[in-house]
Amino acid sequence: MMNEVIKVEVVSKEDLEEIVELHCKIFRNYFLKNLGFELVKKYYQAYDDDKGTIFLKASYNNEIVGFVLTTSNYSNIIKNFYKDNFYLLSKKIVIETLKMNKTIFLGLKSRVMNVFKKSKEENVEEEENCLLSIAIDDNFRGKKIADVLINKVEMQLKENQVKAYSLSVKKDNTGAKKFYEKIGFEKIGGKGELEYYTKKLNFRKEE
Question: Is residue 38 assigned to a domain?
């Protein structure tokens, strides 16, 4: 069975380039990917350096075929990422905008609009711990690798006494939403092009 040869381990710094390659392969039409390999690597490096991060990889025959990333320190990490890479980000965004890169343009538009929208519907209360990314190589879809990674993450979250965690997903990503709902996430609201979900973790009572 596939699960018998899949290894789940903590991501190391030596894995980051392979992680970025997989990210760029899977998330082709996402804002981050369109910022380029160097910035995507710096993005994941920022989380890998943080103690509040759970960053796991799934490997098959020494090749990374999936990964999952959660953190309890999203706001500080992303703020520092933007600050530390302001020049590179600005340069890349200007270049891609001049190239009429639709993904970059729509991503910027969405982020600007979210700053100014303050309707009650969009006041979403997320948990401190967030699932930021889960990716599975297209050639390994349907083999329950995502379930294995989520189970490993939740085991570690429970060890850390985390009672719930959240995620955001694009409203039009029906496949991802079905998966999250299947594994126990519940929708808690929406903001711009995103919908937000939370999952409460069950702790078995000792008899």
Answer: yes
Cβ–Cβ < 8 Å for 36, 151: no
Dist CA 70 CA 68 (whole Å): 7
pTM given for the model: 0.84
**Torsion angles phi and psi, residue 198, rounded to 5:** -135, 145
Sheet harboring 186-191: ordered strands across?
Answer: 7-10, 53-60, 63-71, 130-136, 164-170, 194-200, 186-191
- Helix axes of 86-98 and 102-116: crossing angle, nearest 10 degrees: 120
Per-residue pLDDT tens over the stretch 150-204? 999 999 999 999 999 999 998 999 999 999 999 999 999 988 788 999 999 987 6
User: Do residues 27 and 135 lie in contact, with contact meaning Cβ atoms separated by under 8 Å?
Assistant: yes
Q: Is the residue at 182 inside a domain? A: no
